[in-house]
Specification:
alpha/beta; TIM Barrel; 8 strands; 43% helix; 14% strand; globular; binds 2-phosphoglycolic acid
């Protein structure tokens, strides 16, 4: 799977993207306001987050049934920007993932260490806590995918080396046997090397997914 996380950017024209993708498998995760346009264009469309309840007094949140009503087929949960800036916890992320899976959505659950944690040798401890809290609630659900996104590599231009990605992915798979995507400054120039690692099953692409040519190029490299 190659998934594009548009973050809080308006992103490319969905119809132009759909046409450029042809038959290439893909997922796009636009901001909430563009979900309908992406679905209408025929793109495989995920939300960037989803709440664990189906409805209730949770201002600012959106539930799985609400997404499904729009034709959205999955959601990212636990992105490091959600954890970092919006206080999302391991338990909250696991609950979001579990509820979405129960509702029938696909889930991309994000994990990853900060630069500081890597430097102090805590990468595996951090990954273990994050992955196990998701695994405890969700198990190896067939619609669950993990995205390994080292926080120090997100939007920084610093990519994990293929060896670092392979090592982290293999470790994650030893804890929870599901597909693992790589995320963090993935672009056409480094996609081939990263995606050819045996434990790298795809990519979660931020910045490069906003450009039709770059995103299509990465999808093509993977196909
Ligand atoms: P990036 O973002 O590709 O811009 O580093 C990846 C992500 O945050 O999912």
């Amino acid at each position: 799977m190659i998934a594009g996380n548009w973050k809080m950017y308006r992103g490319p024209d969905p119809r132009a993207l759909r046409e450029a993708l042809g038959d290439l498998p893909h997922v796009v995760a636009p901001p909430f306001t563009r979900l309908s346009d992406c679905v209408a264009a025929g793109l495989t469309t995920y939300a960037q987050n989803v709440h664990w309840e189906s409805e209730g007094a949770f201002t600012g949140e959106v539930s799985s049934p609400m997404l499904q009503e729009l034709g959205v087929t999955g959601a990212i949960v636990g992105h490091s920007e959600r954890r970092q800036y919006f206080g999302e916890t391991d338990l909250g992320v696991a609950r979001r993932a579990h509820a979405a899976l129960q509702a029938g959505l696909g889930v991309i659950a994000c994990v990853g260490e900060t630069g500081e944690q890597r430097e102090s040798g805590d990468t595996e401890t951090v990954l273990r806590v994050q992955v196990e809290s998701i695994g405890d609630l969700c198990g190896t659900h067939e619609n669950l995918v993990i995205a390994y996104e080292p926080v120090w590599a997100i939007g920084t231009g610093k990519t994990a080396t293929p060896e670092m990605a392979q090592e982290a992915h293999a470790f994650i798979k030893s804890l929870l046997d599901v597909p693992v995507l790589y995320g963090g400054s993935a672009k056409p120039e480094n996609a081939h090397e990263l995606l050819s690692q045996p434990a790298v099953d795809g990519a979660l692409v931020g910045g490069a997914s906003l450009d039709i040519e770059s995103f299509v190029a990465i999808c093509r490299i993977h196909s």
